[in-house]
Amino acid sequence: MLGEMLSPAVWFPKSLEEAWGMRQRLGSHACFIAAGTLLQIEWEKGRVDPGHLINLEGIDEIKGVSREVMSGRSVVRIGALTTLGSLLSSSLVLQHSPLVTEAVRGIAAPAVRNRATIGGNVASGIGDAIPALLAADALVSTFDGSTRLTKPLWRWLQEKDNGQITSSEIVAQIELPGSGTADYFYRKIGRREAFIPSVVTIAGCCMRKEDGTITHIRLAAGGGETSPQRLQFSEKLLQGMSIQDAVLEDVYRNVLEEFQPVSDVFASAYYRKQIAANVIASELAKFA
Ligand SMILES: Cc1cc2nc3c(=O)[nH]c(=O)nc-3n(C[C@H](O)[C@H](O)[C@H](O)COP(=O)(O)OP(=O)(O)OC[C@H]3O[C@@H](n4cnc5c(N)ncnc54)[C@H](O)[C@@H]3O)c2cc1C
After folding, report:
1. How far is residue 275's CA from residue 71's CA, in Å, rounded to a whole number?
2. 280 alpha carbon to ligand 1 midpoint, in Å?
3. Which of 1, 70, 170, 242 suits 30 as a labelling partner, its CA being 20 to 30 A distant?
């Protein structure tokens, strides 16, 4: 029935250039599709109604995981079409960023992960991998028709098409810089047996000196329809401090103020703020 009502034309580019050219030519009625596991849900809900689908799956240059050493620092590059299943089994990703492996393990069931891509998760702006990638300081490379532009994921999300789940840019690659040996946490609060988006998804990453002083901290939260956000004021509050009760109380209050989730039928924005603040304070307390 749905198929009869909506029958978009499907295009199969073989390169980033070709895909970009198609999107330019077809305009905003066209949207990119990778495995379609999220797009299909949004389509059935009537949130997207593309006249044309540009299927990226034939673009080999944006598949796979590799490692490079740049100026003595190791960087892991993940092509956008890499499936969540291959990420989960990648020893490179596990060694480099166990936080990302843990996040991917919590997404959907194996049958979906074997098709769903990391690019689709990120490009949607609401995927559960995003808070972990933000905490891992990930960069995103997009293709602009002739070259790849790389920027911090948090910045790309801020600039992304107004909270739409579709993206007018092609996400080509995710880069994970080396994070050294950091403590981390990832918590996804909500149901996952069918795809009901999480209530809140929170991730954090922290490095400390021997005396306990925090030298590096990243905190990120998202969940539901909320675009994941880095909590930069709360990070600043913690930088250079050691984790004590008084600091955690300040962090709790700060997260309540700083995190800006949206309300939906499952939970109010304030409830989500409270969960995020509680989880962050209690996870940091565990590090102490
Ligand atoms: C049963 C089930 C359970 C699920 N559980 C979860 C869950 O727990 N957590 C979660 O986060 N998600 C979940 N999902 C949603 C989905 O599987 C993931 O978000 C997945 O990573 C999306 O990848 P995809 O390749 O299927 O993206 P698609 O559905 O193909 O695309 C998603 C969006 O990204 C765009 N897009 C895709 N690739 C690119 C690209 N390279 N460049 C630009 N735009 C692009 C598309 O236009 C679309 O708007 C679930 C889905 C199902 C069916």
Report:
1. 40
2. 26
3. 1
CA angle 176-177-178, nearest 5°? 115
107 within 8 A of 128, measured Cβ to Cβ: yes
Which of the listed residues 122, 124, 149, 187 should we mutate to test ligand 1's pocket, taking the one with most ligand atoms within 8 A of CB?
124
Cβ proximity of 35 and 115 under 8 Å: yes
Determine whether the shortest distance from the Cβ of 165 to ligand 1 is under 6 A. yes
Closest CA to 187 of 252, 281, 264, 118: 281
107 lines ligand 1 (CB under 6 A): yes
Burial of 278 (0-12, 13-18, 19+ CB in 10 A): middle
- Ligand 1 atom closest to the CA of 81, numbered from 1: 41
Residue 48 burial (CB count, 10 A): 17
- Give the integer Cα–Cα distance in Å for 126 and 163: 9
Terminal-residue alpha carbon distance, the chain: 56
Look at the chain and count its residues: 288
Write down all domains in the chain, each with its CATH number in brackets.
2-58 (3.30.43.10), 60-177 (3.30.465.10), 183-287 (3.30.390.50)
30-72: per-residue pLDDT in tens?
Answer: 999 999 999 999 888 888 888 999 999 999 999 999 999 888 8
